[in-house]
Amino acid sequence: MVIKQGDLFQTTVSSYGSNGEGVAHVGEYTVFVPFTVEGEVVEVRAVYVKKNICYAQLTRVLKPSPKRTAAQCQYYGKCGGCSLQHMSYDEQLKVKKNIVLSNLRKIAGVCLDDAEIVASPEIYGYRNKISLPVGGKRGDVRIGMYRSDSHDIVRCDRCFITGKWCEDLIAIVKRFLDSEGVIPYNQRTFKGEIRHVVARYVDDQLLLTLVFNGETNRNFAPLCDMLKSRFKKWGLFVNVNTLKNNVITSDVTHHIAGITSILSKDVNGIVFRLQPDSFFQVNTQCKDLLYARAKNMIREEGTEVLIDCFSGIGLLTCAMCSPNYQTYAVEIVKQASEDADKMKELNGIVNLTNICGDVTEKLPEIMNMVRGKKTALLVDPPRKGLGEKICRTVCDNLPDRIVYISCDNATLARDLVWLLPHYTLKEIRLFDLFPHTRHIEVLVCLEKAQN
Fold this sequence. Notes:
Strand order of the largest sheet: 6-21-22-20-19-16-17-18
Number of domains: 3
Largest sheet: 8 strands, mixed
């Protein structure tokens, strides 16, 4: 059988791909079909064909799997935010686990039969942050999400993986933008005013940032009145982003009105302050489970020194601190390191030293200073992972234990290629901070290999 673009044919889904899409085999072709479940008989249309690879679109489910479920969201399949809402939550966890185990095997050569996965306490309404693009036209602004693999904006009046606060906020911002005649940004011409709506909602406190394509003298008083009528504590900011790329915000942010930060306390009593650009896990409840296990990994085997790299504003650092060991936190961004000092003071933590600098320079300095003490290294890098340079720095200095929190298991597996000649994998645990999406957080504990 020869498959050509546009062909309609039937097939059976036999497994899942690296993004959670269904995979079928037709003759010599491997066919990838999003929104399908293993075991289903489906009718699909070929969208793109190259050699023996076919990407297809689902047209009908002829024989559904018992693990298929009706998506709650009316935008599912159009909006690109979620990709697994069509399957039961148990099946989602199975898919994610298999993706992680497959990447570990193929990239790092680590073959595991199984790995524990911790489910999210809530699978709807769990997100505390949104970043929504704005399009449409003056007087009829469209706020929503990008269609999968495109820059077409799907208007979304609500999002099921965030709470009711998000639905109310979208309505308020749209009403303001329409009534004021604000012109939406056009990604093709680079003209227009409003680009994105970014918001964080934690502990009944809202930080709203409107991203504008340049400085603005708009009157925000009507918007402030609307926010005041719905939210008890709120802060309004304007971010100025004139870059002609896909970056959502720039480093230029103006406070307009309301609170300047969110002040809250985590499950362990750590007081923290969040500003509009602060990193904070989007799933608070599952984050607490992840951090609790990470701290246990650090405390085991009698750690005497903890070194936290990529420490940011210090929330994770403070959560990991203990009177039983000295903690050092390394962060390259000066403002973030200064904020970490403020968080240290806010919580009255004494045995913590925040250091501003590059990990490749500061880690060797700290390791030399604490030589002879049992040392644990904590890393929670961005999606790109540690990379070869940092991994080689770690292996040159050999802390006794590494606790690695990863939001991209493919780059984690790549980093393990460099780390595992010097370390053994003691534990791996998955935490589902992102239900209904393909993403998963992975926690790994490595022990220095015995010579």
